Amino acid sequence: MNPSHEPTALIIVDMQKGMVNDLPRNNPEAEAHIRQLLEHWRACARPIVHVRHLSRTPGSPFWPGQPGAEFQDPLAPGEHEHVVDKHVTDAFSQSGLERWLHQRGIRSLVFVGVSTNMSVEASVRSAACLGFDCMVVADACYTYDRPDIDGKLRGAEDIHSVALANMSGEYARVLPVAELLRNQ
């Protein structure tokens, strides 16, 4: 996975209670895969970062103090795991995450979470532009159906695939959870 044997951080993006809803989405096994990776990282005592979106819009389910802003119970941070609060899609923007990673000598990042085409993609692009070696676990991310610019509804699977294609190569290595764990 990381040939230089530098520490690799697991970055879990926006796995909050407000993301649990009835909207059409892809990858129903994403949470199970994220949990599998979280347990593996914990067992190996590797660095884990939980990113949480806190909205600046009153009434949002992600407004601070609302139940939707809290982490999903099975994926909640452990006592010694780092939590990053963000107010925009990019986990690196004005959050201190880049500094936290540099202070610990972490240059390699594995991204999982929601939404593939929003916060995951924005954070991966920033991380790569900042010089981090990024991986995205395709089956540990998901997104929702969404209309395109012309109002035509696009399916979550297509949106997910395009977002992964956008990141693949220039910004990140995209791989399934089984391959990531096999190459440990």
TrEMBL record:
Domain (Isochorismatase-like): residue spans on this chain: 8-176
What is the protein name for this chain? Cysteine hydrolase family protein
Give the signal sequence positions. Answer: none
Instruction: Tell me where on the tree of life, at the top rank, the source sits.
Output: Bacteria
Q: Which organism is it from?
A: Rhodoferax potami
Going by the UniProt record, its keywords in alphabetical order are: Hydrolase
Q: So what EC number does this one have?
A: 3.-.-.-
Instruction: Specify the taxonomic lineage.
Output: Bacteria, Pseudomonadati, Pseudomonadota, Betaproteobacteria, Burkholderiales
Which principal EC class is assigned to this enzyme? hydrolase
> Matching Gene3D superfamilies, A to Z?
Isochorismatase-like
The record's InterPro entries line, in alphabetical order, gives:
Isochorismatase-like_dom (IPR000868), Isochorismatase-like_hydrls (IPR050272), Isochorismatase-like_sf (IPR036380)
